[in-house]
Specification:
- There is one protein chain.
- The protein is 0% helix and 43% strand.
- It is mostly beta strands.
- The model has no long low-confidence stretch (mean pLDDT 96).
Length: 171
């Protein structure tokens, strides 16, 4: 039950699935419509932009634990789920990197996302369900489409924008 160090691209040419536990992610991970699931903690350390995606069709992308991008601003992560969902279950730490969900039907953020000067940009054809705080401690930016807010969204000097309906359910 250690951590798998992925340093070469994992690419399925069809709709097969990729399931990993704890990972140090130093490469791209892709399928053509198949699900991608990380069950344990994921640390991005590629040293350049990383892509995790299922293409334009179905196929969910799930991070079942924490997701951390190393500081230095070079470990940006782009997630593409097409018509599938993106689920970020554990706390996400961007530091000064960018996290982009380029496409999904719905995204779910359970434990929140923190960072400093990076950018969070989520594009959904449905809604983003935010149940954990989105907090940028610096001038980082947050861009969301339609969203259901069950938590706070904040930056220190960065822009926050919503491209669709905003529904509050913080209770």
């Amino acid at each position: 039950s250690g951590t798998t160090d992925v340093n070469g691209d994992l690419a399925m040419s069809g709709a097969g699935t990729i399931t990993l536990d704890a990972v140090t992610l130093g490469a791209d991970v892709s399928t053509v419509g198949g699900a991608i699931s990380f069950g344990g903690a994921v640390t991005g350390d590629k040293g350049s932009a990383t892509a995790v995606g299922t293409g334009s069709g179905a196929g969910a992308v799930t991070f079942g634990s924490t997701l951390g991008l190393t500081s230095g601003g070079v470990d940006d992560l782009t997630i593409t789920a097409g018509t599938g969902a993106v689920t970020l279950t554990g706390a996400v730490t961007l530091n000064d990197n960018d996290l982009t969900v380029a496409s999904s039907t719905n995204s779910v953020i359970t434990a929140g996302i923190s960072g400093s000067t990076g950018a969070l940009d989520i594009t959904d054809s449905g809604t983003t369900d935010v149940n954990g705080d989105l907090a940028m401690s610096g001038a980082g930016t947050i861009t969301l489409d339609a969203v259901t807010l069950g938590a706070d969204v904040s930056t220190v000097g960065g822009a926050i924008s919503f491209g669709g309906a905003v529904t509050g359910d913080k209770g």
